[in-house]
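re: ur question from earlier - yeah i can do the single chain one, its not a big deal. heres the input i used so u can compare w yours
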Amino acid sequence: MTSTVGQLPRIVQPNLSRFFEREIHPVIESLPASPVLEGGEASSLDQVLDRAAAQVDTYTVNEVAKAFTLTLAGLFERQLSRWARAIQDSGLADMNGLCGFETLLGGCAQQAGMDLALHGLGEELTQMFVVANVVRHGEGRSCERLRTLAPDLWDEDAGDYDDLLPGTVVASEHVRIRPADIERYLRAATRFWGFADPLPLAVTNATYGRA
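and the output i got, formated as tokens:
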């Protein structure tokens, strides 16, 4: 591989790690959240206010987690695009026709000689991207696809979350992204770059947060 193509995976991988360690993890850990939301008749106004605050806290944590997933997916897609451009410029392969995240991911994996089925890598990265689309657009094909790919991201009986929005229940608003999900997506993205890294001592199994 040429210098730029060979070096980019080693450079962009820690950029993902730093974003998690310096921004995502500290912010998520600093947000208040209640493991269980109390129901039933309140015995005082203070209890009503405390319950309302707990509902807002857990709702906000989920919104922040969704926003970070959107940002993480965008960062990883830009990294793929940059690497594909480097491969194209080096003359190693024609990468111009790779339109869309999954096509780009598959093309880059092929150039790295990588099996995306290994460790569920392609599945996790695709899920991250589809989640990002649902966060960005709400209802639509991506939301329907996500219900098939990851039904566990919905839990209508969860005791630690209430949708604050009034009106008809909207599936895209009930997607639950927990810290463990963000860590899954991050591990998949950094593992991808570890497998793509041709340099010595490539990191292919880093751990983050609760992992």
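DSSP finds six helices and no strands in the chain. not sure if urs matches, ping me
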